[in-house]
Design goal:
Low-confidence stretches: none
Shape: globular
Order of helices and strands: HHEHEHEHHHHHHEE
Distance between the termini: 51 Å
Strand order of the largest sheet: 2-1-3-4-5
Structural class: alpha/beta
Mean pLDDT: 96
Helix content: 40-55%
CATH architecture of the largest domain: 3-Layer(aba) Sandwich
CATH topology of the largest domain: Beta-carbonic Anhydrase, Chain A
Largest sheet: 5 strands, mixed
Radius of gyration: 19 Å
Bound molecules: cobalt (II) ion
Number of strands: 5
Length: 204
């Protein structure tokens, strides 16, 4: 079967199975989405938000980019966060990185990859800030540690957006989680306690 046709066939089978187990599933979803979670993760094909968290369509609002970067000047991620927080009123934002991230690896390397080097600038800054810790480690541990530091840093960026600060100011319930996914085990692990208020940002 053609490599593209097979996706359409897969979809027809999936939709049929969903309708059989829950006849109203699609009509319910078509009326509204009310996800509780916003997922900010890496574009890596091995880290699909719904599948690894066991969530069906409608349960998680998703934003993914290379190396799960959250830059305060990125309108894409800001628009996603604002819609999720102000309109959908999600209660949890999960920033999820993964060990062995190619984007984080590229930020560690001292040669040009292209446009991506600009995108990864915040991670390259992190490597400079944590230079002594990172370079006391073996190569593979260095990458893993930088993957963790990146998640922690990007979650702090989320917490410092005006969107999240204003939500907390209004008394809106909103927790930011810093998670990392281990590709070779399929396991998610939190790296710190959730950030639930502005004063939590610097606490680990
Ligand atoms: Co990645």
């Amino acid at each position: 079967m053609d490599r593209i046709d097979k996706l359409i066939v897969n979809n027809a089978i999936w939709a049929k199975k969903m309708r059989e187990s829950d006849p109203d599933f699609f009509s319910r979803l078509a009326n509204q989405q009310k996800p509780r979670y916003l997922w900010i993760g890496c574009s890596d094909s091995r880290v699909p938000a719904n599948q690894i968290t066991g969530l069906p369509p409608g349960e998680v609002f998703v934003h993914r980019n290379v190396a799960n970067v959250v830059q305060e000047s990125d309108f894409n991620v800001l628009a996603v966060i604002q819609y999720a927080v102000d309109v959908l009123k999600v209660t949890d934002i999960i920033v999820c990185g993964h060990y062995g991230c190619g984007g984080v690896q590229a930020a560690l390397e001292n040669f040009r990859h292209g446009i991506i080097d600009n995108w990864l600038a915040p991670i390259r800054t992190l490597t400079r800030v944590h230079k002594s810790e990172l370079y006391s480690l073996e190569d593979n541990q260095r990458l893993d540690r930088l993957c963790e530091l990146n998640v922690l840093s990007q979650a702090r960026h989320v917490a410092r957006t005006t969107i999240v600060e204003d939500a907390w100011e209004r008394g809106q319930l909103l927790a930011i989680h810093s998670w990392i996914y281990r590709l070779d085990q399929g396991i998610l692990n939190p790296l710190r306690k959730p950030i639930e208020q502005a004063t939590d940002v610097e606490l680990i």
